[in-house]
Structure formats: structure tokens, C-alpha cells
Amino acid sequence: MELIHTCQLCGHGKTKKSYEIDRFKSYGAVHRFNNFLEELIKVLNYFRAFAILIRVRRLNGFILDSGCGRGEIIDVFEKIGWRGIGTELNARTASDALKKNIKVITSEKITEYANANKGSLDLITSIHNLEHIEDLNLFMETCNLLLKSNGEFVVEVPNFDSYQSKMAGYRWIYLDVDNHRHHFTKKSLGILLSKHGFRYKFLNTWSIKFGTLGMILSILSKVSKTHNAYQFKSIKGLKFGLNLILKSTILVLLAPFGFLLEIITVIFGRGSVIKVMAIKND
């Protein structure tokens, strides 16, 4: 993993190459996969939104979803009485959220918004967004500024210290050095949160969306020596036909084994993601 500098104290990784912000404006287009996968992803995103809602245990409030994408999280919260706003760098992706009548501001304007709306939010969600951010300290300061006292902050990032990551090495699909600036461990994320005035309420490493798939591709990487991302790209854009049926069958056959292995890694705190709910200190 020569492309990543790893801290010897906390295990945090930082991609050595630099990025241009304009490239991220085209990252994560609205429809990146074939129709079946698109619909499956939407279902899983709504499932995640309901899971967050259950953890929050409130029927109203004000939520900001950082990197809101299609807007599923805000959509769920607004339907039960919350107010919501999203930030998104990619205008194409944000268009799906706008169609749901969700208010979206560009990620570049979040600091300006925070200065005008200090202490206004009950909840901030940052789902697979933190790893893309260059200046983590500025982002965390902004989140702290926006949240009320005892406001909640939900974060989900790939787990750099997961067994998947160790198994696949640089081939791990969620490493994604072309797009991920930071690579978190539980320790490094905890240090970042504590530094900016947050304390843990909940932490686990289980993901129904990323866990089993990541484990299957990591297993295949040991056999084929092919980068996980290439394996996935060879599936996600396929149209219906023999090739899609063959590759889908392989995934289905490996799914129970991948699921079982991922459950075992989660028991030891080494699943595919780090999922945290933190509370802003008084």
C-alpha cells in the first residue's frame, strides 16, 4: 500500500496523491449501475435511513446530511416530521434529491451556512463522505458549530483495519485511493471525534450494504489477483445475458460464505465499515 501513508500510532491512512476538487464534482453520478443494482442500492439506502431513525428515537428535529446523494436519508426523516437539508458536491447526484423537494446546498458553501446557522441542528449524518474530505479539522469544526448542545453526529466510513482490508490489501474495493483521501480505523476516528468535542454513543462495524459484497470480492481477489474494483465494474454495468447470469450466480453461491465470514469479523470489531453515533459535548 505504497500509495498510502499510515500512522504507526493510530493506524490512520492518508492517500499520498493530491486531488483537484473539480474532479469530485463528477464523482458518483446519479445512475452508475445497471437498473437492478440501482434499485437494490435505493432499497438499502432507505433501510439505512430507517436504522438511523431508530437510533435517534425522535419524531422531529432538524437534520443535515453531508454528502446527501439521492437524498434518501432526508426523505425518510422529512416524511415523519423532521426538517432537513443536504450538502452535495455533485450537481448531477443532487438533482435526484431536488426532485424529492429536498433543500440542497453545495458542499463548498457549508462553512458559510454554518456561520449563519450556529447551533441550529439536532442531527448531522455523514455516510461514506468523511473519507473524501481533504480538511477534516475544518469539516469537524463546522459540524460542531452547527449542532446544538447534545446534538447527534452519525458517521459511517470504510474500516481500514477490517479483515477485508487486510485480506485484499491494495485490491480492497473500499480502499479506492482514486477517490478516498483518508482511511479510518476505529482508533483514528475516535481521536478525531474526541478532538472536536464529541463522545461515542454507539459504534459497530456491520454493514448490510457493504459487508457481504466486500468480503466476497476480497475472497475472489485472493484467487484471481484482480483488483476488487475491476471485479465489481465487470458486473455493475452488464446487461441481461449469459455473462451477467454467470457472474451473478458466482456471487449468489459465495454470498452465504461471505455473509458468515463478515459476521465473524463483526463480532471481533473488524467488519467492513466503522459506524458511529456520537454526541456533541455540552
Give an account of the 3D structure:
By secondary structure, the protein is of the alpha/beta class. It has one domain: Vaccinia Virus protein VP39 (Rossmann fold), CATH 3.40.50.150. The protein is 45% helix and 20% strand. The protein contains eleven helices and ten strands. It has helices spanning 21-24, 35-56, 72-79, 91-99, 110-116, 136-146, 163-168, 186-195, 211-224, 228-236, 242-267, and strands at residues 4-6, 13-15, 62-66, 83-87, 103-105, 121-127, 147-158, 182-183, 198-204, 273-280. The strands form two sheets. Strands 5-4-3-6-7-10-9 form a seven-stranded mixed sheet, sandwiched between helices. Strands 1-2-8 form a three-stranded antiparallel sheet, with no helix packed on it. The chain starts with a strand and ends with a strand.
In brief, what are we looking at here?
The protein is α/β, with parallel strands linked by helices and 282 residues long.
Please give the structural blueprint:
Blueprint: E1 4-6, E2 13-15, H1 21-24, H2 35-56, E3 62-66, H3 72-79, E4 83-87, H4 91-99, E5 103-105, H5 110-116, E6 121-127, H6 136-146, E7 147-158, H7 163-168, E8 182-183, H8 186-195, E9 198-204, H9 211-224, H10 228-236, H11 242-267, E10 273-280
Parallel strand pairs: 3-4, 3-6, 4-5, 6-7
Antiparallel strand pairs: 1-2, 2-8, 7-10, 9-10
Helix pairs in contact: 2-3, 5-6, 9-11
